[in-house]
Amino acid sequence: NVTKVAATDKDGTAPNNRIMFTLDQASQELFTIDSNTGLIKTWAGLDYEMQPSHLIEVIVTDLGSPTNLNSCHVKVHVSDVNDVPPKFNKVSIHFYNFSLTLTLIGLVCWYLYAKDKDSPGSNNSKIVYSLEAANSILLDHLRIHEETGEVTISKPFDYEALVQDSSEHFQFSVLATDMGTPAQSAIINVSLIVADVNDESPEFTKASYSLSIPEDTKNGGCNNYINFSYLYADEAGTDNSRVSYSISRVISASVTEDSFQLNKTTGELQVTSPLDFESLVSSYGEFLVEVVASDSGNPPLRSMANITVRVLDENDETPQFLNDTYTASVPENSPEGKNTLILSSFSRSINSGFS
């Protein structure tokens, strides 16, 4: 029932004072009226979203002859019922290779917007947003503003930690729920693939290494691998984890970088020119080689390690007299065993003995 109208006719006798109610033609599509009682009812379902109000013309006619009639208008306000769920502007959203590793707390990532066609300003159209995800790790990193649908970073993402615990491919849902009774809701699925950012520098297994090389090592000799294995956390098989090696500098007064060749891929170290222990006596036969490991990411990251090279002394020096010629005078009557001449010689090999 919508409402009931009443009318009177001042004629004193029937049928002149008997009346009948009808509706205008347009209103009859949605409403009916009892011709005797004036009770107005709905004929078809009303939709607030399509038309929130209706203006009905009620016509009252007496049964006399000639017929007299009058009319009035009834304005019907349709009460909004929470029958329309919120609706997102998209069915699903996909973010591929989204770089989240270096994002800051509070950074806005996305706006997810839903609309409810129920009565504006009412609880039926007021929407509250929330996040749902099977992976609790994701909920630790994302936050959604319940009124605006604004998704922000609540905790920085770490690609390496995500891959270790699960994978770089995530799915989560955003739920838009109105505040009507009963509540209506809509859901949008979001696919997210977190991209690796080059935030991990190559890391040598040790900060320093040591190596002993005989000084008579020939060119191309001493094929030593200095165990330049590294610990990395960037995604394997990418430029971020692809490492190359190089010699930064050689700290020595007599040895240069040209004395070594370092394979940039394998870390194989070769001697390219002979090393001389005797020229390194002041440093006890030792010097430092600085090695750099650089990845191929953008921007590239690097780390350094020191190699202490110890050159081993070899008997590679011929003894030498101080003079090329010596002269001595011996009296003819000198006794046996008398010193006649002292010869002086030396060897540049530190640990050599001679007679």
UniProtKB/TrEMBL annotation:
<dbReference type="GO" id="GO:0007156">
    <property type="term" value="P:homophilic cell adhesion via plasma membrane adhesion molecules"/>
</dbReference>
<feature type="domain" description="Cadherin">
    <location>
        <begin position="2"/>
        <end position="88"/>
    </location>
</feature>
<keyword id="KW-0472">Membrane</keyword>
<feature type="transmembrane region" description="Helical">
    <location>
        <begin position="95"/>
        <end position="113"/>
    </location>
</feature>
<keyword id="KW-1133">Transmembrane helix</keyword>
<dbReference type="Pfam" id="PF00028">
    <property type="entry name" value="Cadherin"/>
</dbReference>
<feature type="domain" description="Cadherin">
    <location>
        <begin position="112"/>
        <end position="204"/>
    </location>
</feature>
<dbReference type="GO" id="GO:0005509">
    <property type="term" value="F:calcium ion binding"/>
</dbReference>
<keyword id="KW-0106">Calcium</keyword>
<dbReference type="InterPro" id="IPR015919">
    <property type="entry name" value="Cadherin-like_sf"/>
</dbReference>
<dbReference type="GO" id="GO:0016020">
    <property type="term" value="C:membrane"/>
</dbReference>
<keyword id="KW-0812">Transmembrane</keyword>
<dbReference type="InterPro" id="IPR002126">
    <property type="entry name" value="Cadherin-like_dom"/>
</dbReference>
<feature type="domain" description="Cadherin">
    <location>
        <begin position="205"/>
        <end position="321"/>
    </location>
</feature>
<protein>
    <recommendedName>
        <fullName>Cadherin domain-containing protein</fullName>
    </recommendedName>
</protein>
